[in-house]
Sequence to fold (186 residues):
Amino acid sequence: MSILPIYIYGTDILRKKAKPVQQITEDVIRQAVDMHQTMHNAGGIGLAATQVGKLNRIVTLDLSEIEEMKDMKPLTMINPEVVSQEGQFTMEEGCLSIPDVRDEVNRPERIVVRYRDTDFQEQTIEGGEVLARVILHEIDHLNGTLFLDHISAAQRKLHRDKLKLMEKGEIDVSYPVITAAKIAVP
Ligand SMILES: [Zn+2]
Fold:
């Protein structure tokens, strides 16, 4: 098991679309285990492969810290796909790739998602509110989309200074990261 560095806002990979996983291999299992460990280490409730520099469609979740979800086990979702959605719901979001920036995002309130588990068996999960939110946020990552893309330009402007510092690699977080500056200057 290892903790992987998390790619930060400004790195190109966060804008790339991840490819579906074709089969379960040792590498896929190892990556999922590492993603869970990386997510826990960073205090996150969801993580997408893109955020650790892997362009395959794997998402890890652990919402057990949230009171109403405390009985839910950590989950690995491979090739997750929204099959239906309903309602609208606004909630504050943050992202391990955009530390110290939070904003209100409007998303569907309930979703049904199909995915493959770590045995490559097809599973379906229905989620509302927080669960729907986290899954949609992570599926966005697999498509190169960030929560900042869902807010207005005026709202985004309020975060401009912090985002500029992030691009320059000037951030202070407790977990290993890769910033655009660190990649540009090895
Ligand atoms: Zn995120």
